[in-house]
Specification:
Elements lengths: L3 E5 L7 H11 L6 E5 L2 H6 L21 H13 L4 E8 L5 E5 L17 E4 L7 H4 L3 E7 L5 H23 L17 E10 L16 E3 L2 E6 L5 H4 L1 E8 L1
Parallel strand pairs: 1-2, 1-3, 3-6, 4-5, 5-7
Antiparallel strand pairs: 4-6, 7-10, 8-9, 9-10
Helix pairs in contact: 1-5
Length: 244
């Protein structure tokens, strides 16, 4: 039984995870992890979802008539079998890469320091990601705004490859293998996502807001996140974070 599960295309219009998996497989690393296509119907149609956002309805319900609600229950049953679950995402308007822990607090069940990213977000709301109900699961978000896609694929591949190396080294501590040489662990910056700035409450220039750059609106100071990503669809100018 493999320890690692990598999920791609939780949103069908985010193919980066598929591209990273293909790169990992071309390097022969699929011997060390299993894969799960989170939302295959949406991926086929290149849509975010079919009936409802899959990343908002875990744990799901196996007898639901809604495709994603049923798929969430099926995905959760599979994911529970693994020690480590990584759900790959991309943000079209984002420029930063980060780890998302969609819960109120960190868990000792996932070694975040094995992920070669500097930034970790504790993001308990909105509800419904897989990682909210499964402590062994995290999300990796890659910002794609103005970015060369091949660079993002290479970076994501390298992150997963190093994670595999460290897990294998831990597993085989008494039997070191020449294939696995990584010894690095990281100290990471920690943020807490506590709310969102809505368009109806914002009269300024959205271009003055930059992800992870301290901003002040009236008397409130916060770090913006995903500026403009959900503006047209949901009226969210950005999410608000504090640094821990």
């Amino acid at each position: 039984m493999k320890k690692i599960l990598i999920i791609a295309a939780t949103h069908g219009n985010e193919p980066l995870g598929i591209e990273i998996l293909e790169k990992l497989k071309s390097k022969g690393l699929d011997n060390f992890f299993d894969t799960l296509i989170g939302n295959p119907k949406a991926l086929e149609q290149k849509k975010e979802y079919i009936d409802i956002n899959l990343n908002r309805i875990y744990p799901g319900k196996i007898d639901s008539d809604l495709y994603e609600v049923k798929k969430a229950a099926e995905n959760l049953k599979i994911a529970k079998k693994y020690d480590y679950v990584i759900d790959l995402h991309e943000a079209s308007k984002g420029k930063n890469d980060f780890i998302i822990v969609p819960r109120e607090k960190l868990s000792e069940k996932f070694p975040l320091q094995y992920i070669d990213l500097d930034t970790v977000l504790i993001w308990p709301d909105p509800k419904g990601p897989l990682g909210e109900v499964l402590e062994t699961c995290i999300e990796l978000e890659f910002g794609m705004n103005g970015r060369d896609r091949n660079e993002a694929i290479e970076k994501g591949t390298k992150i997963i490859e190093e994670f595999i190396e460290l897990i294998e080294k831990q597993k085989n501590r008494n039997r070191p293998s020449p294939r696995f040489r990584t010894t690095r662990t990281k100290k990471q910056n920690l943020y807490y996502v506590f709310g969102k700035l809505m368009a109806e409450n914002f009269s300024g220039d959205i271009n003055t807001l930059k992800d992870f750059k301290l901003a002040q609106i009236n008397t409130e100071k916060f770090y913006p996140l995903l500026v403009g990503q959900y503006l047209e669809r949901e009226g969210i100018v950005c999410y608000k974070m504090k640094k821990l």
